[in-house]
Structure formats: C-alpha cells, structure tokens
C-alpha cells in the first residue's frame, strides 16, 4: 500500500491519470514523491517521471500541452520540465540499469526503493545542496541498510566508487537549509537526521527501527 496521504488528492489523481496514459507507458515515478509514497515520512509535491529510453522531448511536449494543458518551462534532448495544474512535472531519460524490477502499486509504476536510494546517494555525492536528499536517505534507513544502498549505487552507477557518497553523507556545508520540508509527523530535527547519517556509516549493515524524528 502506498502512503497517498503524503501528496495532495489532486496530485495523486493527476499521477494516476498520467500512469494510465498509453503515451507515457515507459515513464516511471522516481525521486522524493516515489519515496514519500513508499515510506510515508514527508509530504511531496513534484512528479519526477523517468524512462530508461531516449524520447523526443518536442513530441512529448506537444502531446502534454494538447491533452493536459502542460505549461513547459524547459526542454532539451531527453528532458522536459514544466507544470500541469500547478504540479511540477519532470520527464527525463535515466539511462542507467535498474537495480530491481519496477514496482506497480495502485496502478502507479515506481522505481524500486533500492534504485531511488542509489539516485539519492548519487545526488548527495554530486551536489549535496538539497536538504531533502539527506532527510530521505536518513529515513530510508528503516527499510535498507547503508550497505544495501551502496550495493545498489554500485550496480546502477557501475563506474563510480562508494567513497563519494559516504563522504557526501557527512558533508553539510553546501546544504540549503531554507528549503521547505514538511514531515508527516512534526518538524524535522536536523540534529537527529545528522546523527542517523553518522550512525548509518558506523553501523553499515543495520536497518534502523524508526525514523530519525
């Protein structure tokens, strides 16, 4: 069962509609919203739809504009970004292997948790500015050990070593702490998030019992 309470009713209905559209059959939900639906830890408002295949962004743009009144604000090869009814939509080619099979729940196609964990670690290793990525990785620790996540990272990004994401998990200078994050239970406590990240590295094979909130 997905934690549909983490998104607005309008966003979830839009997601279901897009998932049932045959023209978008090769797109799957990823990112923070997919993880929020899995874990139920925080609210999320964006729909990141990834495909393993290249696509003609101009053709997809015209289709979405015509059928859903899509408001496009960025387009390039294999990438399309915009909004539908004020919901941010990203359509992007993710040309990396699946770690696990696609999950289908309530008609929603989602990347598996291990795939999302690998992408979150990659984001932390490569940028490290998004507060939500750190919170998401910390909360993922109730489902996956860091060892599981790093194994997934190496499977997806075959030519990358695990040193960068491990270092990134404890480097906080670039984090934009003004980024709004709405947890489902109370306000996030950065000190608890930070401690969980350190504990994950110390206890690499541990799956923790509760969210760090």
TrEMBL record:
InterPro entries registered for this protein in UniProt: AbiEii
Name of protein: Nucleotidyl transferase AbiEii/AbiGii toxin family protein
């Amino acid at each position: 069962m997905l934690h549909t309470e983490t998104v607005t009713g309008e966003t979830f209905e839009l997601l279901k509609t897009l998932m049932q559209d045959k023209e978008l059959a090769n797109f799957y939900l990823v990112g923070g919203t997919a993880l929020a639906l899995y874990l139920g830890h925080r609210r999320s408002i964006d729909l990141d739809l990834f495909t393993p295949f290249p696509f003609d962004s101009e053709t997809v743009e015209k289709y979405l504009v015509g059928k859903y009144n899509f408001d496009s604000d960025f387009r390039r090869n294999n990438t399309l970004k915009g909004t539908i009814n004020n919901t941010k939509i990203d359509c992007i080619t993710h040309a990396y292997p699946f770690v696990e099979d696609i999950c289908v729940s309530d008609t929603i196609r989602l990347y598996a948790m291990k795939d999302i964990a690998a992408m979150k670690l990659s984001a932390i290793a490569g940028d490290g500015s998004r507060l939500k990525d750190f919170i998401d990785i910390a909360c993922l620790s109730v489902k996956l050990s860091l060892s599981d996540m790093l194994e997934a990272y190496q499977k997806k990004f075959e030519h990358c070593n695990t040193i960068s994401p491990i270092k990134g998990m404890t480097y906080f200078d670039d984090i934009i702490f003004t980024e709004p994050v709405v947890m489902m239970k109370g306000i996030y406590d950065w000190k608890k998030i930070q401690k969980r990240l350190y504990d994950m590295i110390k206890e690499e094979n541990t799956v923790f019992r509760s969210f760090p909130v």
